[in-house]
Specification:
Helix content is about 35%, strand content about 20%. The chain is of the alpha/beta class. The strands form two sheets. The protein has a seven-stranded mixed β-sheet, with helices on both faces. A three-stranded antiparallel β-sheet has the order 1-2-3. It binds zinc ion. Zinc ion (ZN) binds next to loops.
Length: about 280
């Protein structure tokens, strides 16, 4: 007889985990306030009472940043080949198919180009509801392509992370993406093209360990979980209780890991001003 058994609960990758929804109303999971959904649209999906920044999908993020919400999508024809023929609770191929149907995307990122306060930019927005925003070969390649295009065309790059890290189902191939993107970013840095990294809830694992922390400017939304290993794993490893608010944006800012914590409502203006500053000739 086994000493313990593992319940086979399927991995929950639904993006809207933070907002409990029933029809016209949503409930804030932080202050328990009931919010009319229309008000939530108005407030950019931020709780009007406690300022909790809810998770939002990649398309909504892009619509908040680009002028008139207009942008062109690029590199959206890449698909994962399931190189390891991987199966955990269910086959990876099935997970991919399901996520594609649910999100209408081929993988966990959207590459977009358009204008931000009149300034042409390239933006990569990660989609958390696509297998936890995890980075496999496709996400890695798409971000690397965006970096290369930005470098070649001297266009500022903004990457909005919402990711659990490298994609387990593609093993070492996922890990190779970290090096590929980091190398491309180093070339971009040499070419003096600005790169702003925006971290949202959550940004963890291989994403933090590569491009998310390599921005010329590293900023985050309030209250976002940002780290490499999760707090539970660290606690179990070092056998110590972690301080209050550990791995949240504000804690990271206080300890010098971030340049700023920026509210969603201020994000577009903040980025526009930063880009202006970064591109002012000396
Ligand atoms: Zn609230």
């Amino acid at each position: 007889m086994a000493w313990f058994k593992r319940e086979s609960v399927p991995l929950d990758t639904s993006g809207e985990k933070r907002v409990k929804t029933e029809g016209l109303w949503a409930k804030c999971d932080q202050c328990r306030q009931i919010i009319w959904k229309k008000d939530l649209d108005q407030s950019l999906n931020v709780c009007p009472k406690c300022d909790r920044h809810f998770r939002i999908d990649a398309r909504t993020r892009l619509s908040y940043l680009f002028d008139d919400g207009k942008y062109e999508v690029e590199d959206n024809n890449l698909v994962s080949t399931d190189p390891l023929n991987f199966t955990d609770l269910k086959p990876y191929a099935e997970r991919l198919k399901r996520s594609r149907e649910d999100t209408g995307l081929n993988d966990a990122v959207i590459n977009a180009r358009g204008k931000l306060s009149g300034q042409p930019v390239i933006v990569c927005a990660m989609e958390y509801s696509f297998i936890g925003g995890s980075m496999g070969a496709v996400v890695g390649e798409m971000i690397a392509r965006a970096v290369e295009k930005a470098t070649a065309e001297k266009l500022p790059l903004i990457v909005i992370s919402a990711s659990g890290g490298a994609r387990m189902m593609e093993g070492a191939i996922s890990l190779m993406q970290l090096a590929k993107i980091s190398a491309a970013l180093a070339r971009m840095d040499e070419a003096k093209v600005p790169y702003i990294s925006v971290m949202t809830d959550p940004t963890t694992g291989g994403t933090t360990a590569s491009f998310a922390m390599l921005g010329d400017l590293n900023i985050a939304e309030p209250g976002a979980l940002i780290g490499f290993a999760g707090p539970r794993v660290i606690e179990q490893t070092i056998r110590q209780k972690l301080p209050e608010g550990f791995q949240r944006s504000e804690f990271l800012l206080e300890h010098g890991m971030l340049d700023a914590v920026v509210r969603r409502a201020d994000m577009k203006n903040y980025i526009a001003r930063a880009l202006e500053f970064m591109q002012t000739p000396a």
